[in-house]
């Protein structure tokens, strides 16, 4: 039987970083409220020439540098920070990367969940033709209004992963549990560049999704909880993963060790919220960690506000270490430029841009891809 799963996984982020201790000091808040209460230390901030396209392309370029483009017939771009109501952001990435014309490109949207929809869709395509490979990109900028409770849960990040038959990293198991419930916990209106969030309701809806998706997973033939070795949960802030882990244990009547989820939080603590990418950044942190995961089963909980949830499992493959990118990701995080709070606030304000006004943006970030501005209301991108 052909196995299908994640063959490679690469992380990208923005070029600037804000220390949440600095944000707390400016607001007159004890920094422990962010470090301990939210489980966050830093948040990545895009420069003027960075957005979901540039970050997504940077992550995908690392996949292509290692594996080439042969067999890639589909590019899924998952995001809730869409740059256009019609055209997929992935079409820009397709051009920047020089992918073949014989590649279908589709954007998927359902808050933070859609990268998991992309994974399941990719598995279906490969089940039909095991010679094909699917490139998935999840890229987002989490942006809230300044001086609000949600402000310290901003961030920016992307992942790209390659879905194939006989994967080197992790095999996707067949059972999956899903749960959907319409709830106004979080959304971003068409006329806003910042999201609207009801924090307490969002936490409650998230935890409802954990229980509902788990119950459906078990009803579909999923393994018992004692057969799962590690857990990755969606991380709008890393303390939320800890809450979800505890709630799942309470729901099934067992006490789950906190270290089974703590190992997934290292990158997200430093990148901040990355919406669709955060679950897979958590997976990267776990795979890059010290523990030997060979043969381990990882339970993943994916949540998208509004809301859609899914619980599924991956099994880590022998030799997976050769495909991980820990040193590369650490270097990316270390290379970010620290900015003070006034500079961060200026960058935040600059996102309020009128598309009817042409603008040229000079390349400033060190990455290979740049948002070059607007011309005739169309977005322009360049590559070094």
TrEMBL record:
GO biological process, one term: acetyl-CoA metabolic process
Keywords from the named record: Transferase
Amino acids binding (3S)-3-hydroxy-3-methylglutaryl-CoA: 30, 144, 243, 273
Gene Ontology terms, MF aspect: hydroxymethylglutaryl-CoA synthase activity
CDD domains assigned to the protein according to its UniProt record, in alphabetical order: init_cond_enzymes
Residues forming the catalytic site: 80 (proton donor/acceptor), 112 (acyl-thioester intermediate), 234 (proton donor/acceptor)
NCBIfam families: HMG-CoA-S_prok
Pfam families with a match to the protein in the record: HMG_CoA_synt_C (PF08540), HMG_CoA_synt_N (PF01154)
Protein name stated in the entry: Hydroxymethylglutaryl-CoA synthase
Protein source organism: Microbacterium imperiale
Domain Hydroxymethylglutaryl-coenzyme A synthase N-terminal: 3-165
Domain Hydroxymethylglutaryl-coenzyme A synthase C-terminal: 177-245, 259-318
Family: Belongs to the thiolase-like superfamily. HMG-CoA synthase family.
Family matches, as SUPFAM superfamilies: Thiolase-like
PANTHER family in the cross-refs: 3-HYDROXY-3-METHYLGLUTARYL COENZYME A SYNTHASE, HYDROXYMETHYLGLUTARYL-COA SYNTHASE
